[in-house]
Amino acid sequence: MNGMGGGMGMAAPPGAFYHRHMMMHMTFFWGKSTEILFHGWPGYNNSGMYALALVVVFLLAVTVEWLSHCNYIEETSNRLVAGLLQTLMYAIRVGLAYMVMLAVMSFNGGVFLVAIAGHTVGFFAFGSRFFKKPSPPAGFAKTLDLPPMSNMSC
């Protein structure tokens, strides 16, 4: 036994290891037989559930971009309530961004592509100039509720 769960002296494919009779990829691969985010989901050889998983990852990425570019908190609102709402929105955005990252860590090529597509569509819809209204006059500029993800540093 080679210790990789292959049995009968068979070697595991390069870039993969076995855990309880389930192959876990450590390099990008293509195919619908994968697990994304949760044990057993979307399952193996189930095209419908795989498509649903791709839609979920896409929508998670779009939602992260929406939260990154929204500005719904009024400047004149109560500072405590505004601060708590801003903190809650931040926690949700970071949590969803980590879920997208963990989905991509399935190393499935389709998941990677829909995550990029979701962030791209989300940025185009919520962050690009195409859908933005003209800027208000000087002195009335409204800031975003949350800092952009790229400006987050320790």
TrEMBL record:
Subcellular location: Membrane
Keyword hit for Transport: yes
A GO MF term: copper ion transmembrane transporter activity
Topology of this chain in the membrane: Multi-pass membrane protein
InterPro entries, alphabetized: Cop_transporter
Record's keyword terms, sorted: Copper, Copper transport, Ion transport, Membrane, Transmembrane, Transmembrane helix, Transport
The keyword Transferase is assigned to this record: no
Principal place of residence: membrane
GO CC term (a single one): plasma membrane
Membrane-traversing stretches: 48-68
One Pfam family of this chain: Ctr
Family: Belongs to the copper transporter (Ctr) (TC 1.A.56) family. SLC31A subfamily.
Protein name as catalogued: Copper transport protein
Species assigned in the record: Fraxinus pennsylvanica
Organism classification: Eukaryota, Viridiplantae, Streptophyta, Embryophyta, Tracheophyta
